[in-house]
Amino acid sequence: MKLSPATIGLGVSMTIGYGTLYYSFSVLAPEIAGEFGWDESFVFAIFSLGLLAGAVSAPIVGRQIDRFGARLVMSLGSLLAALALVLLAVMQNAWQFAAIALAAEFVAIAVQYDAGFAALAQRYGRQARAEITLVTLIAGFASTIFWPLLQWLLTLMSWRDVYLVLAAMNLLIALPIHLAMPKGVSVRVPVRADVGGAKALPQRGDGAKAEGQEMQSQPAPPVASDRRQMVLMAISFAGGGFVMSAIGAALLVLLGDLGFAAATATFAASFIGPSQVGARLIEYLRRSLFSPPLTAVIAAVAITLAMALLCLTVVEPWPIAIFAFAVVYGIGQGLTSIVRGMLPLHYFGPDGYGRRTGALSGVRMVLSAAAPFSIILLNERLGPAAALACLVLVATVSTIAMLALVRLDAGPPSQSA
User: What is the torsion angle, in degrees rounded to the nearest 10, for the CA atoms of residue 59, residue 406, residue 372 and residue 147?
Assistant: First the structure.
């Protein structure tokens, strides 16, 4: 398999997008709260609202990618991300912080997975599976790179200076990568027949024409099966997003309340990252073994099984159970990021990909933003058993929706790259 330098570059820019606009917050938020004398709960509440802002922007960004192409949208995203980070470095009060943090998360979607997947779909069409997997494999190291990097930078400079460094990364590394991407919409879309049987003539779409390529046709109105597939996909993605957001924010709290020592819980949780990367590597190297729908089912089932394993610790805090949870959950989480990019492509193709993934991301991010608060509230009021039962229920609903989607089986056969 020949590795595409452009795809590797996109993986690097996605790593910067997540590292500077997502993972940086958990490290820098306590520093910000300490300087201004704010409660940390206030700072993290602003971050949750920022995730909701991302949910609002996702459909908007998706439509603009369909219209103007990923290069323009992602390049503007890098510029705006750099500007937001510079403004965070110089903000002076709570209102400024809230406004700038919300703006930063609003533009973040333009430099993270959904925009990157749309860029690959526009360039490679249905054969983008390998490229999507490679990008997630590279960007899967974002937290591994940025958490220790940020901690080290804080030993050398203030949090304000760190934000300036993060802005420079978007401006000097991510922006050139995005500017080097192919211009406009370059996927050739087959012409569909209309209801009467006559072929529709190609129309001038909103998307820009790539040099040497045909114009993109206007997307055909969705049929009933398309709508059913979108609804089931949205339910499954949103349920998975809820569980992963809750685990990312509250896992150590839940394990502590279940009776595990902090060292044991932290060590077990450290197995999630390697399992995630391992699953993505296997998917990249052996992707011809499973179709995209089957990979999606495996991911959903793994998340549900992981939640069930975690529930076993309610009866008895067995360390082996949380280690098994970490491995299985890491597999499910690693594959889920890939599924989010390749499943809409499998069922609907590249035509209107940005619009569809933007809509799916909007629903998913609303539930993801609500998850940490909801699970912590359940844990405080009813205990960890109730919180884990909620996660098992949501994961099960996500899996059932994915199984129902696959049973429809109305999508075209996958073409492995």
Answer: -80
Structure tokens belonging to residue 343:
């499943």
Structure tokens at 340: 């989010």
State the burial class of residue 342 (Cβ atoms within 10 Å of its Cβ: 0-12, 13-18, 19+): buried
* Per-residue pLDDT in tens (0 to 9) along the chain, 417 residues: 566 788 889 999 999 998 899 888 877 888 888 889 887 668 777 877 887 887 788 788 888 888 888 889 999 999 999 999 999 999 999 999 999 999 998 899 899 887 888 888 878 877 777 888 888 888 877 877 887 888 899 999 999 999 999 999 999 999 999 998 876 554 444 333 333 333 333 333 333 333 334 334 444 445 556 788 888 999 999 999 899 888 876 777 788 888 888 778 778 877 887 888 888 888 877 766 778 888 899 999 999 999 999 988 888 778 888 889 989 999 998 898 888 888 888 888 777 777 788 788 778 888 887 787 788 788 878 888 998 999 999 999 999 999 999 887 644 444 433
Prediction pTM value: 0.69
CATH number of the domain located at residue range(s) 224-408 in this protein: 1.20.1250.20
Right CATH for 5-179 from 3.40.50.1580, 1.20.1250.20, 3.40.50.620, 3.40.50.880: 1.20.1250.20
Check if the beta carbon of residue 229 is closer than 8 Å to that of residue 349. no
Domain ranges of the chain: 5-179, 224-408
